[in-house]
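Fill in residues.
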């Protein structure tokens, strides 16, 4: 989940990025399963606005009996289902064009209502926590609460971190303004920042945006990569103080929320939600730091093969196999992904293909005002929509499609197997399902080609995937840990803090084989995930789990345990869910196994290129 935007700059450079109206409807998502029109959305919004105060009728009564508790939970669920659907539509419309004032107004309008809904229902959790242990256990044993048993047990676990009803109300009221820095970051980077254009390797002038930036870095012409890098970061340098202030406020908000709820640190607060021990986070960083030698060897190989006098970070993305054909139209990308997921059975591949080709789950191409990057998004009982900014000359976009399809099918299976209160799977598990599909895609493509250069290309792709998902995301995770610890220790969190901390990590994770340009220190100011703190480590743990699970499915030919994992939704916490599927993330073993695969692939690539 990342960003983009066009700018109507003088000189017409933005014309290369089409307006939303210029995109063929077949290449956009079909949101009518959510709401047939904005007017239908407004009618549902108005109805929720009218009815939500009724939840207050349960105030002071939630814990009086199992029946009243059940009724309160069901009432809250009904409002939540409607709010989730409203939010889903509003978010998708804003993502397709965040320069459209009506889309922004809809989100703002809903944000205000959701704040009032959270405020009005804030008494429910504290009243559940106030139930005595004996009474709570008796209620759980009642058949009428059977469908709520798991979610109630998870909620009760938060007892020490749940405040009084009035305090919960104040926190609910405060969340929208406290999170305003995220909106500032989004509007600044998506709408206000202007990157201009520059000629590509053919001399054709092309718009530079957050979405097209990676396309420039994939070019074989080293000068194109260098110019794109410097032009891109020149715009970030001109806004660095605003961006640093926004990120600092995000960190301060994380620390405030953690302290308000009696957690020792913001990191502990984030991991507690998934019942993930701090040791899992620390094991990840320690294991990756201990296995950097193959990464440095790969950078040395990359510099030699590209015949560069020195390797810069902007040279780290272009495929080092020059003659691989990587022009893949979107329909062909669908073919590749569907073929790759065949080991998961007919239902999985059939539903996914229908969603991509017929039901228009995916919004495919870049347009002016559209959010950059990619994501999958759903609400209960509705299609799992995917946003992409697909470019046929960026082969990694095929993997992005497989990745988002993994998220979407995880949602599809979980919705059909679980009730609303149990279907929400945590991000820790979500990143397993997405990267699992990428592993299947790599296996499929390597199986079908014997051509030496193409095999080298695909192995290089997998190397870069592990590098960006395990090594790079672990660097990000370490950065988040450092800056939050500084705020918690009362140290200044400023632009200088961010640049110095990030520079030290760049030196650690790139080593002496890569020249670190000073502008790269600003990279920490453009990562959207830093506004959802302690999220990125789940990419690294997710891929490590996915590698293990994919190897099991491909070796054994039995996908039943993996499909059971998809169907589990959020019924259990992540570690036992993964243990049931066949991987133990409580130990460093899956991470070590993935980094051994990385080292093996570097050996294979070196042999192929020789």
């Amino acid at each position: 989940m990342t960003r983009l935007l066009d700018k109507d700059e003088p000189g017409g450079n933005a014309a290369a990025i089409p307006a939303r109206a210029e995109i063929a409807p077949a290449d956009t998502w079909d949101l009518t399963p959510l709401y047939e029109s904005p007017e239908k959305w407004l009618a549902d919004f108005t109805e929720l606005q009218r009815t939500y105060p009724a939840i207050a009728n349960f105030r002071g009564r939630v814990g009086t009996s199992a029946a009243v508790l059940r009724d309160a939970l069901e009432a809250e669920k009904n409002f939540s289902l409607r709010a989730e659907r409203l939010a889903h539509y509003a978010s998708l419309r804003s993502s397709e064009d965040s320069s459209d004032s009506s889309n922004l107004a809809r989100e703002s309008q809903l944000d205000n209502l959701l704040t009032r809904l959270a405020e009005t229902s804030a008494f429910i959790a504290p009243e559940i926590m106030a139930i005595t242990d004996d009474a709570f256990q008796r209620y759980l044993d009642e058949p009428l609460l059977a469908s709520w048993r798991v979610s109630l047990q998870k909620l009760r676990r938060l007892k020490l971190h749940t405040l009084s009803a009035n305090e919960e109300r104040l926190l609910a009221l405060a969340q929208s303004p406290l999170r305003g820095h995220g909106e500032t970051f989004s509007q600044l980077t998506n709408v206000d920042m202007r990157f201009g254009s520059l000629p590509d390797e053919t001399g054709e002038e092309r718009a530079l945006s957050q979405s097209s930036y990676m396309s420039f870095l994939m070019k074989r012409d080293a000068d194109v990569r260098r110019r794109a890098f410097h032009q891109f970061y020149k715009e970030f340098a001109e806004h660095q103080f605003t961006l640093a202030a926004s990120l600092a406020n995000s960190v301060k908000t994380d620390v405030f929320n953690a302290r308000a709820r009696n957690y020792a640190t913001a990191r502990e607060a984030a991991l507690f939600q998934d019942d993930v021990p701090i040791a899992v986070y620390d094991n990840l960083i320690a294991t990756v730091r201990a296995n950097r030698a193959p990464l440095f060897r790969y950078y040395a190989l990359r510099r030699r093969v590209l015949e560069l006098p020195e390797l810069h970070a902007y040279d780290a993305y272009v495929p080092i196999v020059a003659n691989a054909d990587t022009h893949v139209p979107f329909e062909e990308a669908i073919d590749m992904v569907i073929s790759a997921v065949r080991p998961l059975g007919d239902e999985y591949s059939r539903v996914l293909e229908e969603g991509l080709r017929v039901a228009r789950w995916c919004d495919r191409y870049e347009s002016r005002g559209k959010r950059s990057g990619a994501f999958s998004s759903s609400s209960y009982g509705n299609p799992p929509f995917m946003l992409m900014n697909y470019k046929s000359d960026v082969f990694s976009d095929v993997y992005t499609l497989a990745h988002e399809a993994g998220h979407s099918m995880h949602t599809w299976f979980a919705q059909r197997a679980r009730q609303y209160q149990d279907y929400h799977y945590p991000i820790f598990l979500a990143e397993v399902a997405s990267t699992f599909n990428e592993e299947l895609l790599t296996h499929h493509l390597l199986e079908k080609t014997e051509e030496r250069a193409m095999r080298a290309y695909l192995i290089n792709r997998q190397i870069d995937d592990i590098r960006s998902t395990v090594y790079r995301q672990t660097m990000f995770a370490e950065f988040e840990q450092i800056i939050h610890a500084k705020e918690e220790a009362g140290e200044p969190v400023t632009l200088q803090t961010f640049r110095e901390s990030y520079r030290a990590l760049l030196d650690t994770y790139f080593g002496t084989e890569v020249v670190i340009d000073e502008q790269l220190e600003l990279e920490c100011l453009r990562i959207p995930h830093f506004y959802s703190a302690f999220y990125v480590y789940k990419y690294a743990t997710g891929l490590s789990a996915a590698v293990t699970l994919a190897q099991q499915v491909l070796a054994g030919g039995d996908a039943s345990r993996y499909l059971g994992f998809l169907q589990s939704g959020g019924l259990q916490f992540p570690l036992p869910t993964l243990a049931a599927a066949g991987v133990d993330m409580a130990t460093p073993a899956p991470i070590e196994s993935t980094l051994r695969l990385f080292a093996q692939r570097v050996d294979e690539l070196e042999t192929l290129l020789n």
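The longest helix spans residues 452-488.
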